[in-house]
Every structure is written in C-alpha cells, then in structure tokens.
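Lecture notes, continued. The same structure-token format from the folding unit now serves as the input rather than the output. Read the line below as a description of shape only.
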C-alpha cells in the first residue's frame, strides 16, 4: 500500500487550485502556478520549472516590505525530444520520497528527468536527465535540446558573475538590495551551478547516459563551493540520488498516516505531510 502511494502521488493540497484533472491524469505539467509541485529541503526550495529559487533566511526589503529574495533558477531545465521521434507516453510525477520525475517513452529510447532538493547535501538542487536506448533500437545519435528557465535578472539581489575556477561551472554572488532594518546589513548569497549546454547527445555506441546538473546556494562562497564539490564527488561514486532517497525513506518510516479504503484522501494526507516535511530542515 505504502509503496504504491509513494509512486503514484500527485498532490493538490490547496483549495485554490481548480485544475483537478491532475488527480487522475498527469500527462501534462499544470499551467496554474498553485498546482505546480514544489521541491525543498528546508534550506533551498523551488517550484519545479519556475524561475525562482528561495534560500532559508534570505529576505529582501525594509520592514513590512520584507519578502523572500528571488534567486534566478539554474535548476529549471527542460529537455526537448527530437522532432522526428514519436512520444509513446509521457508523465509528470511528484514522488513523495521526494523527487519530481518527468518521464518520456519513445519507440527508440526512454528519457527520465529527476529534480530534487538534496536531503543531505542541503545546499543543492539537482537535475538529472537519463536517456536509455531500447534494446533493438537503431544505434544512432540521440540529441536532446535543453532549455533553462532562468528568468530575468533578480530584482532582489545585485548579482555579479565571477570565475568559478571549475570547468563547466558558473559562479555568481551578491547581496540583497535592501536590508530589513536601517541597522541590519544586506544579506549575501553565493551560487555555483553546472552550466547547461544547448543539447546533450547519447552517442551511437552508448546504450544509456545520465547528465547531472547541480545548483549550490549558500550565504558563503566557501560553503557553496564545498557543497558543489561534495555533490560532484557523489555523482562520481553514483550515490548522489541514493543518499537523498534513503534519508527520505527513513523519514517516512519514522512517522506517517496510512489510510485504507479512500485512495484520494490517503494521497492528500501524504501530500500534506510531504509539503510540511520538505519545508523543514533535517
Ligand atoms: C531523426 O533525425 C536525426 C537528425 O536529423 C537523424 O539523424 C535520425 O536518423 C532521425 N531518426 C529517425 C528515426 O528518423
Ligand atoms: C521504456 O519504458 C517502458 C515503459 O515504462 C518500459 O516498458 C521499457 O522497458 C523501457 N525501456 C528501457 C530500455 O528501459
Ligand atoms: C578561471 O580560473 C582558472 C583557474 O584559476 C583559470 O585557469 C582560467 O583561465 C580562469 N578563466 C577565466 C575566464 O578567467
Ligand atoms: C554583503 O554582505 C556581507 C555580509 O553581511 C557584508 O560583509 C558585505 O559588506 C555586503 N556587501 C555589500 C556590497 O553590501
Ligand atoms: C548542439 O549544441 C552545439 C553547441 O554546443 C551546436 O553546435 C549543435 O548545432 C547543437 N545540435 C543540435 C542538434 O541542436
Ligand atoms: C550564514 O548563515 C548561517 C546560518 O546558516 C549564519 O550563522 C551566518 O551568520 C550567516 N553568514 C552570513 C555572512 O550572513
Ligand atoms: C541551454 C540554455 O538554455 N542555456 C541558457 C541557460 O540560462 C542562461 C542564463 O539565462 C543562458 O545564458 C543559457 O544560454
């Protein structure tokens, strides 16, 4: 029962949302902002595919005007299938253990994209995109075009870019524009991220390939860089996702509400708990 719920879930927790079609059908990503899934770990969070990332404690504005500062998202990456490929099926799923998954199946290959806020390496937002060739499919290059929704320059933070000293990695940093009071300082933020290429290619002899893109945010350059580097090490050892997943499975094993009979209500309860748990630091 539990496992089944974990993997089928798409949650609508707000009464504001009127796009109820998603409860039974999640073949397309919801247009309404309120229906779009959020991923977070209590330190960093984003609405999937949106151009905003928020960091714990990072507010901009004086007194009542204080609001969460918008960090432009480097984690809103979309893949586009080659136009001559017919899509057999496609799905968008929020798995409460806790990862957003976009899956596309074509006659030649499958693509899986996972987006999550890492539960252990809590400064990281991770995107990974895997292409797996179907056995028997023609061995030819498969190129996926990528786009990212970084959005406009931040209205809250004066960002400057600098050399990250890591190949393929961008770095920018800045402070919020307006402090909360006359006497408090503005707040710093530092971000390292994997540069997103225009496309990725599964070359002819390969049967599968995974590309990982990370965004690391922190109020210090040292910390942001060190989380990025730790993430990179975990990618190399193949453990980045499993450490995240294991901590979430442990979290659910420590407490949850199971409900038989009413699947819809059971999903809503899991969903509500997911949103609470993903808003709290570990
Ligand atoms: C799809 O288009 C690419 C690039 O134009 C080409 O290399 C490939 O052979 C085509 N694949 C199919 C199945 O038509
Ligand atoms: C592609 O996805 C379909 C549907 O989930 C699955 O049956 C098939 O085994 C997958 N192919 C590969 C190579 O993973
Ligand atoms: C960035 O830093 C690296 C290492 O210090 C250096 O090799 C590289 O030339 C620098 N790149 C630019 C564009 O300054
Ligand atoms: C940014 O914030 C840090 C830490 O509060 C502070 O030391 C620094 O002076 C600020 N920089 C600017 C340009 O305000
Ligand atoms: C992939 O990106 C490279 C530049 O990185 C570009 O030269 C090439 O034309 C692109 N290919 C496709 C199929 O979009
Ligand atoms: C950065 O955040 C930590 C808490 O995560 C806080 O203790 C520290 O003072 C902050 N540093 C700056 C420069 O704002
Ligand atoms: C592949 C792609 O769309 N890359 C873009 C991601 O966003 C940055 C910042 O807006 C662009 O410079 C890249 O071209």
């Amino acid at each position: 029962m539990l496992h089944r719920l974990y993997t089928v879930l798409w949650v609508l927790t707000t009464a504001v949302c009127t796009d109820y079609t998603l409860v039974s059908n999640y073949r397309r990503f919801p247009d309404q902002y309120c229906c779009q899934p959020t991923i977070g770990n209590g330190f960093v969070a984003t609405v999937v595919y949106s151009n905003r990332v928020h960091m714990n404690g990072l507010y901009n504005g004086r007194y009542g005007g204080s609001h969460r500062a918008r960090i432009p998202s480097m984690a809103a990456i979309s893949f586009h299938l080659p136009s001559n490929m017919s899509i057999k099926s496609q799905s968008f799923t929020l798995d409460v253990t806790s990862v957003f998954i976009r899956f596309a199946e074509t006659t030649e290959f499958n693509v899986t994209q996972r987006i999550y806020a890492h539960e252990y390496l809590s400064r990281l937002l991770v995107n990974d995109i895997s292409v797996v060739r179907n056995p028997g499919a023609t061995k030819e290059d498969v190129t996926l075009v990528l786009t990212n929704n970084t959005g406009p320059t931040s209205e809250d933070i004066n960002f400057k870019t600098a050399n990250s000293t890591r190949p393929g990695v961008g770095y920018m940093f800045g402070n919020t524009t307006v402090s909360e009071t006359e006497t408090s300082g503005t707040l710093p933020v530092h971000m390292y991220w994997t540069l997103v290429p225009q496309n990725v290619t599964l070359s002819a002899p390969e049967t599968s390939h995974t590309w990982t893109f990370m965004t690391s945010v922190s109020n210090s350059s040292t910390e942001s860089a060190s989380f990025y580097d730790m993430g990179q090490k975990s990618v190399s050892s193949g453990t980045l996702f499993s450490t995240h997943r294991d901590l979430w499975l442990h979290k659910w094993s420590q407490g949850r509400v199971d409900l038989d009979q009413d699947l819809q209500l059971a999903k809503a309860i899991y969903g509500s708990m997911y949103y609470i748990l993903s808003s709290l630091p570990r």
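Point for the exam: The two ends are 26 Å apart (CA to CA).
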